[in-house]
Amino acid sequence: MSRATPLACLVTTSVLALGLAAPAQAASSIDYAALGDSYSSGVGASGQSGSCLRSNNAYGPLWAAKNSPASFQFLACTGATTDDVRTGQVPTLSSGADLISLTVGGNDVGFTSTLITCWTTTDSGCVAKVNEAKAYAASTLGGKLDAVYAAIKAKAPGARVVVLSYPLIYASPATGCTLSTAKQAAINDGARVLDAKIQERAEAAGFVYSEVRDEFAGHEVCSSSAWINGVTLIPATNSYHPNNSGYASGYLPAFTGSAG
């Protein structure tokens, strides 16, 4: 009886392993839903419409257009807090959803009011406001996130849920910006604390956490190729949100790599 060589055994084992691996679910059979706030609705991109300021250039619609899922629910809405997602978006979520994406938490900690304060007060005033947001994230946000995640699991128990982070607004530090480096550092530090809490609670819920900072590195506000809008006047809501490139080259790859 001939004896198989080690190489032949390795090849055979590899082939068997490939043959026994569970095939990935085809996108055409996936029911996908995009939940969340303005970073999921597409604020900052072109083509926004309706009271929720949804844009087909947001990462959710971009993923759907590329992958042609069986169904797509675009439920994200500008200004949404954790309570808004839990009581307004989750109830309309399909119970058969296979894939869900989500950004939420920024409005809970006062994203807009913090940035306005940092633009209109001193360095110390900005730092104090950011510290308020960080304290809320530490004391209260975790419970709010847990409630949202539990509601999603109860409504669509079979779904793969991808929770995406927020990017850092500035490089470390950005030069040539109107805001001082102290304010930039404070804003970025607040974002890190927020993302850390989101990651902690998402992973505790058994969800997939996807960090977007790597994708946005080198494309922050004031960079030569910014994927995040600075202060905009028309419309003001676009301020500090991703532009078309930010959604297509930042958020979309971060989501696609975690969608399974």
Low-confidence stretches: 1-23
Beta-strand fraction estimate = 5-15%
Q: Provide the residue-averaged pLDDT.
A: 90
| Count of separate structural domains | 1
Radius of gyration: 21 Å
Helix share bin:
40-55%
Number of helices: 9
Question: How would you sum up the major sheet?
Answer: 5 strands, parallel
Shape: globular
Beta strands, count: 5
CATH superfamily: SGNH hydrolase
Indicate the CATH topology.
Rossmann fold
CATH class group: Alpha Beta
Terminal CA distance: 44 Å
Question: Largest beta sheet: what is the strand line-up?
Answer: 2-1-3-4-5
Structural summary, described in words:
This protein is α/β, with parallel strands linked by helices. The N and C termini lie far apart (44 Å). Strands 2-1-3-4-5 form a 5-stranded parallel β-sheet, with helices on both faces. The longest helix has 33 residues, at 123-155. The radius of gyration is 21 Å and the shape is globular. The relative contact order is 0.14. Helix 7 links the parallel strand 4 and strand 5. The protein contains 9 helices and 5 strands. It has helices at 6-20, 38-41, 59-67, 82-89, 111-120, 123-155, 181-204, 213-216, 244-256; strands at 31-36, 71-74, 99-103, 160-164, 208-210. Mean pLDDT is 90; it is low at 1-23. It has one domain (25-256): Rossmann fold, CATH 3.40.50. InterPro entries: SEST-like, SGNH_hydro, SGNH_hydro_sf. One of its GO terms (molecular function) is hydrolase activity.
